[in-house]
Amino acid sequence: MELTAGHVWLMVAAALVLFMTPGLAFFYGGMTRAKAALNMMMMSFISIGMVGVVWVLWGASMSSGEGFLQMVGNPFATFGLEGIDTPDGLIKVGYAATFAIITVALISGAIADRAKFGAWSVFVPVWVTLVYCPLAYMVWGGGLFGPEGAIGQALGPAIDFAGGTVVHINAGVAALILVLIIGNRKGFGKDPNHRPHNIPFVMLGAAILWFGWFGFNGGAATTAEQGGLIWVNTLAAPAAAMLGWLVTERIRDGHPTSLGAASGVVAGLVAITPACANVSPVGALCLGLVAGVASALAVGLKFRWGFDDSLDVVGVHLVSGIIGTVALGFIALPVEGVGGGLFYGGGFTQLWAQLAVAGIAIAYSAVLTSIIAFAIHKTMGFRVSPEQEVVGVDLSLHAETAYEFGVGGHGGSFTPLHELITGKAQAAAAPAETVAPTSNGKKTAAAGKESVEA
Fold first, then answer.
1. Which of 137, 224, 272, 444 would staple 141 via disulfide (CB 3.0–4.6 Å)?
2. Which residues of the chain have pLDDT under 70?
3. Spatial distance between the Cα atoms of 10 and 17, rounded to a whole number of angstroms
4. Is the CB of residue 395 less than 8 Å from the CB of residue 419?
5. Cβ-proximal residues to 450 (8 Å cutoff; 6+ apart), any chain
6. Would the pTM count as exceeding 0.85?
């Protein structure tokens, strides 16, 4: 079969979505402290590697095809992608893989500065297997919420065109669970050094995310008309959300910020994701405005309620994901004059379906993520030591630094700085002021802090 324009567009869209994860790395890397920037970016990059392997072996099979109890596909049905022989089968597999990659990468922002890289590397494939794949099957693979699913038949099919539940609500809930299990950073809410260290990186990351989001939302478009609507809505919602966030900052804090502009864009993109093909452009503007204001207010709740969602994954992705998903019950356009949201005369049918898919996604992600994270935390440990946190996870976990602050190099195989800092190589020769060992390691940590604090 010849390569069609549709095939080409889907491959381009998949590349755009894959590019979003490095964009997320810049977005998150700029928001954290200088001494944790590389670790934050590595958490996104390792997600590409881990999920890429999982998706080829069993992830794609678990998210489609024949399933168990309408909840998950058979992991062995097309293990290693054997048997996928339709003309566009592998292209769709690749496109779907990019969604799984960025979903788990989103979670990492909530636990910046304090998570073990090894523990995160275990969490990624397990979470994608047990949480993401089943939920993707339930919503997109013909499971519970599809037209033939039990809930879909009882309440009507839920609308989630590009991932309001599967991606954003799922990731936001998982982020909150990890924060509650791992705990807050040292000095949370008090240490001014927790502020973002590189706002230009944040804005660059937001720009890459917005660019890639046109593939994220538009890759599955089936007609030119639908593609055009998705494109305009993907422009309109984040634009309105950015303005809503900035106005909220201006009223609340007295000044709009660059970080607020970038965060507002992401909030609008999250909100329009499930609704991009099912609301009018004016509806997209309204949805974005509400999401921008709501997320701007929500991110401050972490200080009031005492949970350290480091980079606002809960405030942006969970809150705006819920808004975008539930809003479809009110503003979804009728399909060929039938159905639609409450405001279009469709009654409460769509609203009940949207509430059900959001509620079950929250419950499923919360329970399974709790089991996975608790098991890792109680066995190998999910959190670095206090000394490693003070020194910085870049240096203590990767023997590297993002910037040269006079540490004497960026580390590597010839300079195992992480061993010196953690006291595992106290016999190694090193300048006394940098790694002078003591029986309890406090002087070592303090010296490292002087070198890499930012």
1. 137
2. 1, 337-338, 405-454
3. 10
4. no
5. none
6. yes
